[in-house]
Design a protein that fits this description.
Elements lengths: L8 H30 L5 H4 L2 H17 L4 H15 L1
Helix pairs in contact: 3-4
Length: 86
Protein backbone atom coordinates (compact mmCIF):
# COMPACT_ATOMS: atom_id res chain seq x y z
CA UNK A 1 0.00 0.00 0.00
CA UNK A 2 1.49 3.29 -1.09
CA UNK A 3 0.74 6.55 0.63
CA UNK A 4 1.90 9.98 -0.37
CA UNK A 5 4.39 11.78 1.88
CA UNK A 6 2.56 14.90 3.01
CA UNK A 7 4.38 18.09 3.94
CA UNK A 8 1.59 19.77 5.88
CA UNK A 9 -1.51 19.09 7.93
CA UNK A 10 -3.68 20.54 5.16
CA UNK A 11 -2.10 18.30 2.54
CA UNK A 12 -2.67 15.24 4.74
CA UNK A 13 -6.32 16.25 5.23
CA UNK A 14 -6.79 16.66 1.48
CA UNK A 15 -5.43 13.14 0.95
CA UNK A 16 -7.69 11.74 3.68
CA UNK A 17 -10.67 13.42 2.00
CA UNK A 18 -9.72 11.71 -1.27
CA UNK A 19 -9.55 8.34 0.48
CA UNK A 20 -12.91 8.98 2.17
CA UNK A 21 -14.50 9.71 -1.21
CA UNK A 22 -13.08 6.48 -2.62
CA UNK A 23 -14.43 4.54 0.36
CA UNK A 24 -17.93 5.90 -0.28
CA UNK A 25 -17.64 5.07 -4.00
CA UNK A 26 -16.58 1.51 -3.15
CA UNK A 27 -19.51 1.14 -0.75
CA UNK A 28 -21.86 2.27 -3.53
CA UNK A 29 -20.26 -0.21 -5.93
CA UNK A 30 -20.64 -3.02 -3.40
CA UNK A 31 -24.28 -2.10 -2.91
CA UNK A 32 -24.88 -2.21 -6.67
CA UNK A 33 -23.51 -5.77 -6.82
CA UNK A 34 -25.70 -6.79 -3.89
CA UNK A 35 -28.73 -5.51 -5.80
CA UNK A 36 -27.68 -7.65 -8.77
CA UNK A 37 -27.33 -10.70 -6.54
CA UNK A 38 -30.88 -10.20 -5.31
CA UNK A 39 -32.11 -10.95 -8.84
CA UNK A 40 -30.56 -14.43 -8.64
CA UNK A 41 -32.20 -15.28 -5.33
CA UNK A 42 -35.79 -16.20 -4.57
CA UNK A 43 -36.09 -14.66 -1.10
CA UNK A 44 -34.44 -12.29 1.35
CA UNK A 45 -33.36 -15.32 3.37
CA UNK A 46 -31.40 -16.59 0.37
CA UNK A 47 -29.75 -13.20 -0.10
CA UNK A 48 -28.76 -13.07 3.55
CA UNK A 49 -26.81 -16.34 3.68
CA UNK A 50 -25.21 -16.72 7.10
CA UNK A 51 -22.42 -18.89 5.65
CA UNK A 52 -21.59 -16.24 3.05
CA UNK A 53 -21.68 -13.47 5.65
CA UNK A 54 -19.29 -15.41 7.89
CA UNK A 55 -16.94 -15.97 4.94
CA UNK A 56 -16.97 -12.30 3.91
CA UNK A 57 -16.31 -11.10 7.46
CA UNK A 58 -13.57 -13.69 7.98
CA UNK A 59 -11.77 -12.63 4.78
CA UNK A 60 -12.09 -8.97 5.74
CA UNK A 61 -10.63 -9.67 9.19
CA UNK A 62 -7.72 -11.57 7.65
CA UNK A 63 -7.03 -8.70 5.25
CA UNK A 64 -7.14 -6.25 8.15
CA UNK A 65 -4.52 -8.25 10.02
CA UNK A 66 -2.38 -8.41 6.88
CA UNK A 67 -2.56 -4.60 6.62
CA UNK A 68 -1.92 -4.06 10.35
CA UNK A 69 -5.44 -2.80 11.01
CA UNK A 70 -7.74 -3.69 13.86
CA UNK A 71 -9.64 -6.82 12.81
CA UNK A 72 -12.39 -5.87 15.27
CA UNK A 73 -12.86 -2.49 13.58
CA UNK A 74 -13.04 -4.10 10.14
CA UNK A 75 -15.39 -6.78 11.49
CA UNK A 76 -17.76 -4.12 12.83
CA UNK A 77 -17.67 -2.17 9.56
CA UNK A 78 -18.45 -5.24 7.45
CA UNK A 79 -21.21 -6.47 9.76
CA UNK A 80 -22.81 -3.01 9.57
CA UNK A 81 -22.43 -2.85 5.77
CA UNK A 82 -24.04 -6.24 5.36
CA UNK A 83 -26.87 -5.44 7.78
CA UNK A 84 -27.66 -2.19 5.98
CA UNK A 85 -27.41 -3.53 2.44
CA UNK A 86 -29.16 -6.88 2.66
Amino acid sequence: MDTKKCNSLEEARVEIDKVDNKIVELIAMRNAYIKQIAHFKNSVEEVKSEDRIADVVSRARAKAIELDLSPNLVNDIFVRLIDEMV
